[in-house]
């Protein structure tokens, strides 16, 4: 059992949080809106994963970097954290591109 992958996802999320905090791109810009987006994204991708697992499109891979803990059949613990991370990164990138486009429009 290894916690390397889970720690990596959590660490990357923390770093993304620092970027978000510094430039107020998503969660630190409109926190109530961002939390709703994170919750909806989490539910959407979790349902996506469960459906794909049931259809046998996805299967849990074996890796020495993973904990080996499953929250459901073929659904590793790390996947829950990755879904949150994926949704958060998407929100931060949207905030970044919106900020850059707004600055470009003001400059014109």
Automatic annotation (TrEMBL):
InterPro entries: Lycopene_cyclase_dom (IPR017825). It is a multi-pass membrane protein. It comes from the Bacteria. GO terms for cellular component: membrane. GO terms for molecular function: intramolecular lyase activity; lycopene beta cyclase activity. GO terms for biological process: carotenoid biosynthetic process. Its main location: membrane. The chain crosses the membrane at residues 6-23, 35-55, 80-101. Pathway: Carotenoid biosynthesis. It is found in: Membrane. Keywords: Carotenoid biosynthesis, Isomerase, Membrane, Transmembrane, Transmembrane helix. The keyword Transmembrane applies. This is Lycopene cyclase domain-containing protein.
